[in-house]
Design goal:
By secondary structure, this protein is of the alpha+beta class. It is built from three helices and eight strands; from the N terminus they run ββαββααββββ. 24% of the residues lie in helices and 36% in strands.
Length: 146
């Protein structure tokens, strides 16, 4: 069994942002030489998530609106009370909402590979979803199989 791992690096520019990485993941699968297997896309950040859905601009606006409604930025999050968390390392961001949004999506997805290609429908794309931008970010892509 082959195992191939690469990182995708990018920068986000807005607080919530859907970044389509489908083509980049597909290129990594091709470079791996795996014809049958799996590819896992993992976000090593606690304020980002992974989603698979349709890349349609108005639908992405709907997703953002729902995320803001379910986990509002202006709610009170205990995480944001830095003065109560003695010794906690903080980058100074009040981002409790970002951590909560990530909990809804999760940090990874595993997709199947058949004949050297990711199995996705024509309407599906792989998104990294930023909840705490703008930032420099990365995603780990691991391909396993024969």
């Amino acid at each position: 069994m082959k195992i191939h791992r690469e990182r995708i690096e990018f920068e986000t520019t807005t607080q919530i942002e859907f970044v389509d990485i489908t083509d980049r993941v597909g290129e990594i699968v091709e470079r791996s030489g795996v014809r049958e297997g799996q590819v896992t896309v993992f976000v090593p950040h606690t304020t980002m998530g992974i989603a698979i859905n349709h890349n349609e601009p108005l639908l992405l606006q709907d997703f953002m609106r729902i995320l803001y409604r379910v986990v509002p930025v202006d709610d009170q999050y205990s995480h944001d009370l830095f003065e109560l968390r003695r010794g906690a390392k903080s980058d100074g961001r009040s981002n409790g909402h970002s951590h909560c949004k990530q909990l809804l999506l999760g940090a990874g997805e595993t997709l199947l590979i058949e004949r050297g290609k990711i199995i996705l429908s024509d309407l599906q794309s792989v998104f990294v979803v930023e909840f705490d931008g703008a930032r420099k970010r990365d995603v780990v892509v691991q391909v396993m199989g024969e």
